[in-house]
Automatic annotation (TrEMBL):
Keywords: Hydrolase. One of its GO terms (molecular function) is hydrolase activity. Transmembrane segments: none annotated. It comes from Streptomyces malaysiense. Pfam families: Thioesterase. SUPFAM superfamilies: alpha/beta-Hydrolases (SSF53474). One of its GO terms (biological process) is lipid biosynthetic process. Belongs to the thioesterase family. Residues 24-238 form the Thioesterase TesA-like domain. The keyword Zinc does not apply. This is Thioesterase. The lineage of its organism: Bacteria, Bacillati, Actinomycetota, Actinomycetes, Kitasatosporales.
Length: 263
């Protein structure tokens, strides 16, 4: 039985049968679990989709927001302990990609659990600075950045009442990203797949290729047409690609224990 902490942090899309594999989806800055709602039952009857529910939004609107990547990753990993009885793959977009890397690193180091794969989208690798971010204490700059990048959440900002509701979580997320300064990129013993839109205004395809340094096993770069939120217009193609990779993981099996800790 899952504990309360897990249910607060993770939105479950249960599989039709017993799960052979789980996919954890991590939203972007300002995003919520609703962003991945359509992914819930797209990967077969034996894949359970989990989506992280960050504090300060939707049904966690009253929970204190988190403003550092380390705390966010620590809290999420603690909640995931109830979900690592079967192989777990991770997909994260933008801020969620950095969180996915930190989550994979912690699961390996602290719990001896090796994720089946890490899939990162629209984000620079952890050892590469991001010079495109606005000052997280400048509200208007943050709002302008969200509008510039677009995505489904940008429309919320046009409603004054909704804007005030989502603003605390949005500013907190930008503090998380801005405070995530470049750090050593540990080569994880698992495959890494990096996705990016070919017209992303902030994330260059060649920079995304640097995610190869995050894997000691295998790296794949996949480029889709579109901007930072290419995964909205290209959802079906992206889901198909992710699904094919999950099917391959199930076919060959995936170790759940590292047997060691990473240095």
């Amino acid at each position: 039985m899952l504990d309360l902490c897990a249910s607060e942090w993770v939105k479950r899309h249960p599989s039709a049968g017993p799960p052979r594999l789980r996919l954890l989806c991590l939203p972007h800055a300002g995003g919520s679990a609703a962003f991945f709602h359509e992914w819930g039952r797209r990967f077969g009857d034996d894949v359970e989709v989990l989506v992280a529910r960050y504090p300060g939004r939707h049904d966690r609107i009253g929970d204190p927001v988190i403003t550092t990547m380390d705390e966010l990753a620590d809290r999420l990993c603690a909640a995931l302990r109830g979900f690592i009885d079967v192989p777990l793959a991770i997909f994260g977009h933008s801020m969620g990609a950095s969180l996915g890397y930190e989550t994979a690193l912690r699961l390996s180091r602290r719990y001896g659990f090796r994720p089946a794969a890490l899939m990162v989208s629209g984000r620079t690798p952890p050892d590469t600075p991001d010079d495109t971010l606005p000052d997280p204490d400048d509200v208007e700059s943050v709002l302008a950045e969200v509008r510039r990048l677009g995505g489904t959440d940008a429309a919320v900002l046009d409603d004054p009442d909704l804007r005030e509701l989502v603003l605390p979580a949005l500013l907190a997320d930008f503090k998380v990203v801005s405070g995530y300064t470049p750090r050593d990129c540990v080569a994880l013993p698992l495959p890494v797949v990096a996705y990016v839109g070919d017209a992303d205004p902030d994330v260059d395809v060649e920079v995304v290729r640097g995610w190869a340094r995050a894997s000691s096993v295998d790296f794949t770069l996949k480029v889709f047409p579109g901007d930072h939120f290419y995964l909205v217009d290209q959802r079906d193609r992206l889901v198909h690609d992710v699904g094919a990779r999950l099917a391959a993981l199930k076919e060959r099996g995936s170790p759940r224990s590292t047997g060691h800790t990473l240095s």
